[in-house]
Amino acid sequence: DGGITQSPKYLFRKEGQNVTLSCEQNLNHDAMYWYRQDPGQGLRLIYYSQIVNDFQKGDIAEGYSVSREKKESFPLTVTSAQKNPTAFYLCASSMGQRETQYFGPGTRLLVL
Amino acid sequence: GQNIDQPTEMTATEGAIVQINCTYQTSGFNGLFWYQQHAGEAPTFLSYNVLDGLEEKGRFSSFLSRSKGYSYLLLKELQMKDSASYLCAVRSPPPGGSYIPTFGRGTSLIVHP
């Protein structure tokens, strides 16, 4: 089946720890995105990538980093510089930046 | 800047019709999306409007008026499973945007028996 997978479903982070969220797609999509969702807030764009080995900051990139070494994969690292990381993180992909986005199931990150 | 407004919460009765409104003020316009999101799950694509008018897809319809900066999602014959959050997202081209949709805060719809 084609789709977008995210792992893990739940992730716990200790103070001062970096954690990496996985996002994989087998839809052959060129563009991939990371969003953060907080209660009562809309989806906010963290980073996006239009092609392999290229990515751009979104609206709230501080405290996050990404890589795009393969077309299928777009991992997000939440660094210790991100002071309020507790949120629901959603990965999405689209054929191109002007095409409809399709979302993965999300990862809920909690701080211990 | 981009500004998208939706009601925070709506309630409706099973079998009824509900209209969820979305107004937007954006730097340019290149399409409006509606997504459905059940609690703790991924948003799923419902509809896309780029021209004025009504798009019907089964029990769901979406309307767009570009001159008014206004859209609505119409849900007919409501079912309990329609209880979810409905997200409005607007895409704007450069230079004001990047073609990446900006999302509203979502409307939580509660359907009761």
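The first strand of chain B starts at residue 3 and ends at 5.
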